[in-house]
């Protein structure tokens, strides 16, 4: 289980996109369940088919479930995590909510540990709070590097690791989403050469979202 927080409310779209990318990596070819709080949809916009396609998502990859309230969102997460066919679950919630308590996060972590998938809880309009998650991240959108011919660049993010179970100080990565490879990567330097992402992070953290934990 991993907590993802939008750095500001304006980064709500970025946190959902980042969460989808992380879920795609963690799912490893299995299905993704995206539980979307209705308030998140109202504040940040509802999913857009062409946009999901640009992320590299096919309709067969994902089941989208809309939740009118946080309690329903939590139920969606627990039930999805108990389904063997599901490889990753993304729950997108807006605002502060008593239902998203430490006890609720422990229930989700137990479901993730006893099930078959990895859980990402993406929150916008809320301050980071204690939870049972293995890691806690703060995410914001950053400017994309244009592609050849002035084409729009890949979705780019600044992701700061705020906390990780087992220790380790805060650290920030700038990364972009590669639709074709379905993975995050470092932006290419101006020379055009690509620096492997693992070169600047410890080997154990090179794929922080591929490990399923309780």
Automatic annotation (TrEMBL):
Q: Which InterPro entries match?
A: P-loop_NTPase
Q: Look up the domain of life of the source.
A: Bacteria
Q: What is this protein called?
A: Protein ImuA
């Amino acid at each position: 289980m991993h907590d993802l927080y939008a750095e500001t409310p304006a980064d709500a779209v970025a946190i959902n996109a980042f969460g989808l990318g992380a879920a795609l990596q963690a799912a490893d070819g299995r299905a993704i369940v995206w539980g979307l709080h209705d308030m998140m949809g109202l504040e940040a916009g509802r999913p857009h088919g062409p946009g999901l396609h640009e992320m590299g998502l096919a309709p067969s990859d994902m089941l989208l479930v809309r939740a009118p309230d946080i309690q329903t969102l939590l139920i969606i997460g627990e039930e999805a995590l108990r389904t063997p066919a599901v490889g990753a679950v993304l729950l997108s919630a807006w605002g502060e909510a008593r239902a998203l308590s430490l006890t609720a996060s422990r229930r989700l972590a137990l479901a993730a540990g006893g099930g078959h998938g990895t859980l990402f809880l993406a929150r916008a309009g809320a301050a980071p709070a204690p939870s049972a998650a293995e890691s806690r991240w703060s995410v914001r959108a950053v400017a994309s590097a244009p592609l050849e011919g002035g084409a729009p660049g890949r979705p780019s993010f600044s992701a700061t690791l705020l906390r990780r179970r087992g220790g380790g100080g805060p650290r920030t990565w700038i990364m972009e989403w590669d639709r074709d490879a379905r993975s995050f990567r470092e932006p290419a330097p101006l020379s055009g050469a690509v620096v492997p992402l693992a070169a600047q992070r410890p080997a154990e953290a090179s794929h922080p979202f591929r490990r399923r934990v309780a």
